[in-house]
Design goal:
The protein has 668 residues and is α/β, with parallel strands linked by helices. 32% of the residues lie in helices and 22% in strands. It contains 19 helices and 28 strands. The strands form seven sheets. Strands 8-9-7-10-11-6-12 form a seven-stranded parallel β-sheet, with helices on both faces. Strands 13-24-23-14-21-19 form a six-stranded parallel β-sheet, sandwiched between helices. It has a five-stranded antiparallel β-sheet with strand order 2-1-4-3-5, with no helix packed on it. The N terminus is likely disordered.
Length: 668
């Protein structure tokens, strides 16, 4: 016997055990490797959407399903695959028995999680959205599926309690045709409506009743609102009507809470979802109704590629899944009016005689400053009378103290001597400083006339609160803006000064609402300036209690202010649609912008195969880049999206300089 071949019998017991353990591990490794390359007996092919934002690779790829992953690699599961020499993330979208690939398939590297977080309807929706917005499906899926939280995934989602017995809806009693809409919802049908709320309407309660009516038929509901404050209001209304039956999908609770609620929806434990724009992708089981509130709010426009709008996402889902749809708001967008005009949706409004009894609205000229400030006498009187019976809201379009300064003598803008930036003041005892470089100007002198006095042509909410505090001594003045947003106020006679979007809700409604500096909201250089201004004023005015008084300070002849006085959001939207149709602007036309450097835009214009009737406007400077605007008739919108998608694939394959494409941008 060779000295190098000692028998196992001569080994020490500990060494013998170590050898046996090593042999067992080696055998297990061999079996595991053999199983890894052995395809599953049933549906051995997995079609995977790979998380690669390259337009020319934006399609599912086939991979082999190893036997060890046959049960876990289910459609919707997260997986790791080998792609272009790297391990990348992906989602299984389908299992199949055959493949069109002629070579040997690469196996899945591993199943990250067997939880099916990507529903089939969201897979289809991602394809439609990517095609419409000339983007990549992987970018859409990043918006649709939140990041995984492994510990949360291990916890079961408790089922919803038994639904309570509900009374007949009452909050909709004053709305014309609402009974027919709710009756069809209760019958399991799919009605579609555009709803304009009025003063005195408790819109969260009305949304909750529409949700409960749909839920009673065994169907799910998806509600999207602009921000967390609106989520909180709808959450409270649903908690009162259907306690324990819904989840709120927002980022405020942190990644674990968001993923927990998302899993509850995926698993069917909850079928009512309330959230902001990303909640539009929630995989609600048996979806029966989609609701969007205030679709004109720019928070509904996704700032990340491919830049979808919540309204369009929900309307696509309504068409794709055959659900009911409700577009609600105080103001009405031209896009919503187009849905009514085309017959796609019906109108839900409060009758004119009811509107007249709920609020009195007037516009007063800004030049009438008989009380010594920019608040005219009529607005001053409205505040004084309102404080006798409850809280009063004053909306101002700017935050801060003095948002801009000018010479008190010649009205020339006050500029910094260092960088020529605009001067601002943050408080009554603070010297002016530059908004750009921060340089303090304690002894400023006008370069035009030599004057030393300063005036504030644009005043913020802090300066407004200070002025009103002097005008109404002894009255509590509350400010709500920026990081100091007040959600609710009591019925006590306080004066509330708030910026746009930060208006608190009063317990019993405001006795009066005053809207200041309407000219500033109308002065925006944007296609939607008047539409957005009216939306802001309506959202403040609707907070007035029934029988309250609304005063807007501005030009009474302006069409937007006339629409406010008449409380006619539908009429203003019709006017906007007509004027934009004549000017070939959305929603009568489809637009797309392409932004990049001049060389990249030149490549775009040479490679782009535009549909007939398309117009190319530009390029024009846009910040540090340039922009081209593409315009086509509405009927050619799909062809424009297809052309832009083809362009993206060609540019991606050739590795050309990147450009940013936005289809139907909210602002131009």
């Amino acid at each position: 016997m060779s000295t190098h071949e000692a028998p196992e019998a001569d080994m020490l017991p500990g060494l013998r055990a170590a050898v046996d353990d090593a042999k067992a591990k080696a055998a297990a490794t061999r079996r595991r490797k053999a199983a890894a390359w052995q395809p599953a007996e049933t549906d051995p092919v997995a079609r995977v959407l790979v998380d690669i934002a390259l337009a020319h690779l934006d399609r599912p790829f086939d991979y082999a399903v190893p036997t060890a992953m046959a049960q876990s690699a289910v459609p919707g599961a997260r997986v790791k695959v080998r792609f272009a020499g790297q391990d990348v993330d992906g989602y299984v979208v389908e299992r199949a028995s055959t493949t069109d690939h002629t070579g040997a398939l690469q196996p899945l590297r591993r199943v990250v999680s067997p939880e099916p977080v990507l529903a089939p309807e969201i897979v289809e929706l991602s394809e439609v959205l990517a095609r419409r917005y000339a983007g990549a499906r992987s970018d859409v899926l990043r918006l649709a599926v939140p990041p995984r939280h492994a510990a949360t995934e291990k916890v079961d989602s408790p089922p919803a309690p038994a639904p309570p017995d509900l009374d007949a809806p009452t909050a909709w009693s004053a709305v014309e045709h609402a009974d027919a809409f709710l009756r069809r919802l209760g019958a399991g049908e799919a009605p579609r409506a555009v709803w304009s709320a009025a003063p005195g309407d408790d819109w969260p309660a009305m949304v909750a009743e529409a949700v409960a009516t749909t839920y009673a038929t065994g169907r799910g509901v998806l509600v999207c609102v602009p921000d967390r404050r609106d989520v909180a209001r709808v959450d409270a209304a649903l908690a009162h009507l259907l306690p324990g039956h819904h989840v709120c999908l927002t980022a405020d609770g942190g990644p674990a809470a968001r993923y927990r609620d998302f899993l509850a929806v995926c698993r069917g434990a909850r079928r009512i979802v309330v959230g902001t724009r990303s909640a539009a992708f929630a995989p609600v089981h048996d979806l029966g109704l989609v609701v969007i509130w205030d679709d004109g709010d720019d928070l509904h426009a996704e700032p990340r590629a491919p830049y979808p709008h919540t309204r369009e996402v929900l309307l696509l889902r309504a068409g794709q899944q055959g659900t009911a749809a409700l577009l609600g708001g105080v103001a009405r967008t031209p896009e919503a009016e187009q849905l009514v005009a085309s017959g796609w949706a019906h109108e839900l409004t409060v009758p004119r005689q009811v509107l007249r009894s709920r609020a009195r609205v007037e516009v007063v000229p800004a030049e009438d400053r008989s009380v010594g400030t920019r608040v005219p006498r009529a607005a001053y009187d409205a505040i004084r009378r309102g404080l006798a019976g409850g809280p009063v809201l004053v909306q101002t379009p700017r935050a801060g103290y003095a948002a801009s300064l000018a010479c008190d003598t010649c009205r020339a803008p006050a500029r910094c001597v260092v960088c020529t930036g605009p001067l601002v003041v943050d408080g009554p005892a603070v010297p002016p400083h530059c908004r750009w470089c921060g340089h303090v100007e304690p002894a400023w002198a006008c370069s035009t006339c030599g004057g030393h006095g300063l005036r504030a042509p644009v005043r913020g909410e802090a300066r407004t609160a200070e002025e009103l505090g002097r005008m109404f001594p002894g009255t509590t003045v509350r400010s709500s803006s920026g990081d100091r947003v007040v959600d609710r106020v009591s019925a006590s006679p306080d004066l509330v000064v708030a910026t746009v979007g930060a208006e608190p809700v009063a317990e019993e409604g405001y006795a009066a609402v005053v809207v200041l500096d309407t000219w500033l909201s109308l002065a925006r250089a944007d296609l939607r300036a008047a539409e957005e201004a009216l939306r802001r004023w309506f959202n403040a005015a609707v907070l007035v209690r029934p029988g309250g008084h609304v005063v807007a300070v501005g030009d009474p002849a302006h069409p937007a202010l006339q629409a406010l006085v008449r409380w006619d959001p539908a009429g203003f939207a019709r006017r906007e649609v007509h004027e934009r149709s004549q000017a070939h602007l959305p929603p009568a036309a489809r637009l797309a912008t392409v932004t990049g450097d001049l060389g990249a835009l030149d490549d775009v214009l040479h490679l782009l195969d535009l549909p007939d009737g398309a117009e190319v406007l530009g390029p024009v400077p846009a910040d540090d880049e340039h922009r081209v605007l593409l315009r086509v008739p509405r009927s050619s919108g799909e062809a424009l999206s297809r052309s832009l998608g083809d362009l993206q694939r060609v540019r991606s394959a050739r590795k050309l300089d990147p450009v940013r494409i936005q289809v139907d941008p909210l602002t131009i």
